[in-house]
Amino acid sequence: MNTVRASAPAKINLSLDITGMREDGYHLIRSVMQGITVREYVEISRTDSPGITLTMDKGPGFLPLDHRNVAFKAARQFLDDTGIAPQGGIGIKITKTVPVGAGLAGGSADAAAVLAGMNRMFGTDMATEELCRIGEKIGADVPFCILGGTALCTGTGTDMMPVNPMPMCFIVVAKPSAGISTAEAYRNIDAAEPLPPTSKAVEKAISEGDLPGLARNLGNVFDILSAPSAVEEIKRDMRRLGATGCQMSGSGSAVFGLFSDESAARACASGVAVRSRKVFLCRPDRRGAVISQ
Q1: DSSP-assigned letter for residue 284
Q2: Is residue 147 in some structural domain?
Q3: Which of 53, 222, 81 minimizes the C-alpha distance to 138?
Q4: CATH at 28
Q5: pTM (2 decimals)?
Q6: 198 phi and psi, to 5 degrees?
Q7: Are residues 153 and 187 in the same domain?
Q8: Is the distance from CB of 17 to CB of 25 less than 8 angstroms?
Q9: Structural domains counted in the chain
Q10: DSSP state of 191
């Protein structure tokens, strides 16, 4: 197969607690992650020239297009782990949808799509669990972007247990211009007193299919300790425009709001656009990384 197209979902964190730290400095988490219908797309092709070549639909300098890019790392790791030595090389074209530095795992979705695509291209027929084991070596969110759906993620985020699907609803995601340094966000966490965990209440609401209960109990330690004022402004706007619950995703800075009514969600998406660099109206996505037809 000479060309394969694949996609993988962005994610939001319905809950995110820090539960400890390993001796190597990696933080341990407990988080209910949810895939959303905002997806990253890759096209993988065989090339005559050896090596891995990345291109992107964005302009030069948007992201590195070499070994620093997680999509490149995913391709390299796949070849290393499978022992495949392709004749010629691999070309990867990334179509970016997810904003950078948003806490939505856009880069991890690129890596997940590359792994799914190369699995198809080379006929290795690896199961999801096997792809996730490769993904763990690339980044903590990559396995979830391979799996998708709704999952309780623990450890460094790579230990995943699928749970009941999130009730269908409408989700507005808004990325403010203000960004957040992930390193600084973790420093804030380390310097603060431990906060009461929130994941158990979210897990209960998910298990019961209780969207209002889920919306009431959303929790993210980074939202509490590291959110910039732009995040708080978007959250206030979302609540005013009818969101039943809203919070920052991951270490930020994207904010999401939950809606049971589509017209209210559309009005919110329009209303928060004035404060946001990028706004999406989406839904929960039960698929992980998939081959595109």
Answers
A1: B
A2: yes
A3: 81
A4: 3.30.230.10
A5: 0.95
A6: -120, -15
A7: no
A8: no
A9: 2
A10: H
Classify strands 27-47 and 15-21 as parallel, antiparallel or unpaired: antiparallel
Which tokens sit at 137?
Answer: 């070596």
Domain that holds residue 39: 3-164
Judge if 189 and 278 occupy the same domain. yes
* Residue reference for tokens 């799914």: 116
If you ran DSSP here, which 8-state letter would residue 11 be given?
Answer: E
Secondary structure (3-state) at 252: coil
Q: Are residues 139 and 226 in the same domain?
A: no
Domain boundary among 110, 136, 164: 164
| Cα gap 151→32, rounded to integer Å | 6
Active site residues: 11, 141
Q: How far apart are CA 98 and CA 100, in angstroms?
A: 7
Residue-wise pLDDT for 99-124, tens only, equals: 998 999 999 999 999 999 999 999 99
For the chain, the distance separating the N- and C-terminal CA atoms, rounded to the nearest angstrom, is 14
Tell me, what's the pLDDT at 136? 97
Q: What is the mean pLDDT of residues 222-239?
A: 93
3-class DSSP state of 88: coil
